[in-house]
Amino acid sequence: MEHLSHCLRQWSHQQKCCFLEELLRHSSTVQIQFLYTVLQPSVHRDFMYTMRTRFPEIEFSPISTHITRHIKKRLREVKKLRSFYRVDSAYIQQDEDVARVKFPPLLHNNFFPPKKKYIGFDYFNHEAKKSRGHNTETDDSLSSNKMSSNFSSTLSLDRTPRNKKTDSMNDTNVSMSDTVTVSVLNLPTEAKELLNCYRHRWTDSKRNEFLEQLILSLDPRQIYFVSKYLSFKQQKDLVGLLPRKLALKILSHLSVRQLLIACKVSKRWHSLASSNTLWKAKCQEVTIHVPIPSKPNWKLVYRDNCHLRYNWNNARYQSLELVGHTQSVQCVTCYGDKVATGSADQTIIIWDIHTGVMEQTLTGHSKGVWCVQFFTKHLLLSGSFDTTIRMWNLRTGQTTRTFFGHKNQVLCLKLRGTVMVSGSQDKMAKLWDVGRTLLVHTLSGHSAAVFSVDMSEDCQVIVTAAGDKTVRLWDKNSGQPIKCVWVSPNNSIMTISYSQGYFVCAYDLTICLYKGSKVVRTFDEHRQRVESVKLIITDADNGEGYLVSAGQDGLIKYWSLTEDQSLQTLSGHQQAINSIFVDEVYLASASSDKTVRVWNFNVGIDYQS
């Protein structure tokens, strides 16, 4: 090592860097990890600050790594970033980035050896190898046709004076674009001998011992040069270097959680992992409940969709109170940006769902309005105690059609497509074709008033709940009963909701979940009679989903079908809640206190909390 130290002192900085580069190119993972560990304590903030003072002509830059970026983030969070001396980090992606080291100004034009065309050569001649006991075979891997890129270090020289002191040292003007190629050909003989031993004769232990001694004999410029190479070797961004299309193909196999982690790796990865193509595919794998804009950012759509369920589970919402009816509000429904409510005051009011502004009042029923449903954005159906069902044109505010057939008050109606089912105090449910204003079937069989109706997603099964304590299922095509389920021994069935083969109904304080005619689960938390329920099945095979219920206790409860206790309880009304409307984003409730409340769950998340 004494001989090596003596030789190193005679080599130029460029020759040392070329020699170091060759060592690194032929080092195994063991040596790379060893050097990385040894140099970590050296190349720190104080090193950068001191060396910039000692060598002002060289741009020492810390290497940007995941750890340094994490430290910077933590310092920014605790607002201590400005307390530290900082310099911009170098982001190393390719070999060329490592070689861009700026050296001191040249003293003479011919300071470096001239460029030479690479030719095939051996480190030692044939006789020398024999005399030293080397294998006499020529190492063809060192020939120029295989090493022109691997055995040269192109070093970009910044010859522009950084200050007056360095400017006075420059006797010649050299273009900034000039480059000097220092190849293995120009290395001293001792360096070539060391390289040959390092490559072919030494074990990992011997290499590490040599490298440790070598590092001690280097000045800060060479240490910085080695650290840049090590950073590149340790943290080479293979995905970032790929063509975008190929990189996206690789990232498409990651899960959503893995994609979010990938976004934190680097700016390049953030750009790739946030690609609209990737997130559109992720959105297609799930059911999207939030509104999708005309030009969607699919990552934000996916995020908002996840936040929506979080908001429901954690009761994060914005509520709006609608005041305008003069008597009890009996029913509520929503469509797009409109809310329609019916009241015992014989009127229907249309509201703006975002502002709560009253847009329109419909009059025409001679008694209270007990149920409303949108047919289209501009057509509304309503059922009344005056025994009629009316269709309203919201553009004109006038009745366009009237459905006659029930002999007593119309208590409920359900609409899917052009199929409408209505229930009445006359103990009958009726099936209508709304498009033709045609009565298709009269469903008779209940012995008391029909309080609630629903139907399957394909409209093939009609479900009715009545005061005779039963729930009946009907075939849409024939109008004949399929099944009768006796739910309660003593109380009327006030409300029912059907979803994917399951239905939930309520009598008195009890809510029952059924699959077919079998009770799956009961829910008991309301303190007074349950008036309205809504069932949403998300996984029919496993019986997973959600339930919303409201009652005369003025409370709205949100349940998971797999848990006995409610997830959230919403309050705000002063009297009984008569009806609720539930979709993926909104919950609306109509109350006997003459008000309507709209609960919007599509609200932002406070990320700091």
UniProtKB/TrEMBL annotation:
Residues 130-173 are annotated as: Disordered. Pfam families: F-box-like, WD40. GO terms for cellular component: transferase complex. Residues 141-158 have a biased composition (Low complexity). Residues 236-282 form the F-box domain. The keyword DNA repair does not apply. SUPFAM superfamilies: F-box domain (SSF81383), WD40 repeat-like (SSF50978). WD repeats lie at residues 322-361, 362-402, 403-442, 443-484, 523-569, 570-609. Residues 159-168 have a biased composition (Basic and acidic residues). It comes from the Eukaryota. This is F-box/WD repeat-containing protein 7-like isoform X3.
